[in-house]
Amino acid sequence: MVRTWLKRLTLARLILALVVLAIAWVLAAWPFGAVMAHIDHLRGHDEVKTFGLPAEWSDDYAGLLRDRYGVELNSVAGCTPPVSLMQYVEGYNRVSESYLQQKYGKDILEECAEEARANHE
Fold this sequence. Notes:
There is one protein chain. The protein has 121 residues and is mainly alpha-helical. It has one domain. It contains 4 helices and 2 strands. The chain has a two-stranded parallel ribbon with strand order 1-2. Helix 2 links the parallel strand 1 (46-51) and strand 2. Helix 1 packs parallel to helix 3 (83-104). The protein starts with a helix and ends with a helix.
């Protein structure tokens, strides 16, 4: 009887630990992405991450960012990335976009996106 109770208690703890780890993984993804963006910018690497189905003009967009500003466009996942990856990308890009805005004094991402869309049409 006691042995069965201990097995159930151990199983419940294991399940609880897995749930806590899964939640922590999702919650930690955004700050981890932000920290990685700071590290990349400190070492002189400018990058913006994307996921999802790319637009028809995304190659032109990536080329404009790279050629004009030295910014790499990095596609990290397809159409249905895990929530933790989406959070990581959001944290990374929030820092990266802010840094690029300060560095160039304008929104270079929007500038290049508009030009790439216009060139494609």
